[in-house]
Structure formats: C-alpha cells, structure tokens
Design brief:
Elements (H helix, E strand, L loop, with lengths): L3 E5 L3 H6 L4 E7 L14 E5 L5 E7 L3 H7 L6 H26 L5 E5 L1 H9 L5 E5 L2 E6 L4 H8 L11 H18 L5 E6 L1 H8 L5 E5 L7 E5 L4 H16 L1
Antiparallel strand pairs: 1-3, 2-4, 3-4, 5-7, 6-7, 8-10, 9-10
C-alpha cells in the first residue's frame, strides 16, 4: 500500500510531462478544499500518516494563484524554498529508483553554481546537495559523459539538442498543455527576426516556423496565458523604432 492517497484533476505524471517546471508544497489537509472546482491544474497526495498533511503539485506558472487560493500569499518565499526542497527530494528518489531498476549506482560530482545553471538550462535531471561553497550533484551514469561535456566546455565541445530539435520539443509541449487545458494555441504570423529575438529575451515560451509566403519572416505559436506579454513586447519594439 502506498503511503498516500492521490487526488486532483490531473495525474502527477501528466502534470510533470506538460510544458514548464513543477511547483510542489506541503500544507495542512483542510487547505485542499480551497482547490475544489477552481481553474487550476493540480495533483495532490494525501499522506496516510497522522500528520494531517497533503502535498500539492502545480505548474510553476500557477504558484502565485495557488498561494492566493490557499490564502498563503504572505508566505510565498517560504513556500518557494519548500518547493525546491521537495522537488529535489523527489528527483533524488526517482534517480535512485531508476538506478536500482537498471542495476547501476548513482554517480556524484562536485560543481559550482554556474555549472549547476548550465545543467538546468540543458534539462539534465539531477539532485543536488550544498557542500560548503560547492554543490554535490547526483545523476544516472548514462548522463555522466554529457554532463562533463556541458560543464567543461574547454575540454569538450558543448553537446545539446539542435535548435530544430528544441523547437519541435517546445511545440509538442505547447500543444499538449493547450489540449489538457481545453484551449487552442495562439499564433502570430510574419514576424521579423528582430521581433523574434525580442521575444526570446522574455520568459515567453514559444515555437517558431519560417513563413511560407516570405522565407525571411517567421510565424510563432504560444500559450494563451502569454497573449498580453507577446503583444506588449512587440508593441515596445515598435515604439523604439518610432522614437
């Protein structure tokens, strides 16, 4: 028997597979009632022990809304710190289970904060533990070569997915998220390279494609939640040209 009972409007696995990072917190069980029939995707695990607690997972982009629904907006910093700890613990557990299933052992490596950021930007799965002024990371042995190539660029040529592969992955994630939310993706056509570069400097997640009519222009696809950010970014760029 699992030490928890699952609850929510989406499974934990499906939520993890949608676009964006996850955000997980542990609160008292009565807080769960605040999420019933609310417009937010969440997966919860009600602990079977006597702690009267529940672990709730949402997407990172919904963390502020979650805090508002749970009436915990004054504790957002503490919740974010707690979420990082829980996600790291979950990752370490998943890595250990995967290693056991494959008959291998986790590998460990001491890195710095800058190298940690490089691994995060390249979507490498690892757990981490602070050790003095360094960071000790744990990872599966099949990732060892790639990790070393990424964090030691002078020794190895940096290896990551091609721009085409990354774009295809982002588009697939956007479509899946939109489908789960019962929404349609937003599109904008015939953007210039300068407009594309301006959007890439924001936190908007989008996929882009060469325009069929004019190969020097681009079409983009993005989530409905980023509609205003896209409009504001493009408007700001146009205003700069006019001034």
């Amino acid at each position: 028997m699992k030490p928890y009972i699952t609850y929510g409007n989406i499974s934990y696995r499906e939520l993890r597979e949608t676009s964006g990072d996850t955000y997980t917190i542990k609160v008292s069980m009565e807080k769960l009632l605040h999420l019933v029939n609310q417009p937010i995707l969440y997966s919860a695990k009600i602990n079977r022990d006597n702690s009267n607690s529940v672990t709730i997972t949402v997407k990172e982009k919904d963390k502020d809304f979650l805090a508002e629904l749970l009436k915990l907006k004054d504790k957002t910093k503490q919740l974010s710190e707690q979420s990082e700890r829980i996600n790291n613990q979950n990752t370490y557990r998943e890595l250990k289970e995967a290693a056991a299933q494959s008959g291998t052992k986790l590998q460990y490596l001491m890195i710095n904060e800058e190298q940690k950021k490089i691994l995060e930007d390249n979507y490498i799965q690892f757990a981490f533990f602070d050790k003095d002024d360094k960071i000790n990371i744990a990872f599966l042995p099949d990732k060892a070569e790639l990790i070393k190539k990424l964090i030691y660029p002078k020794q190895e040529k940096k290896v990551t997915e091609t721009p085409q592969q990354k774009n295809a992955r982002i588009y697939a994630q956007l479509k899946r998220t939109a489908a789960l939310n019962g929404e349609k993706l937003r599109f904008k056509a015939k953007l210039t390279k300068q407009q594309l570069e301006a959007l890439s400097k924001t936190d908007v997640t989008f996929a882009y494609f060469v325009n069929n009519d004019d190969k020097s222009l681009y079409n983009i696809a993005y989530d409905k939640s980023n509609e205003s950010k896209v409009k504001d970014t493009l408007a700001a760029l146009n205003n700069q040209k006019l001034s």
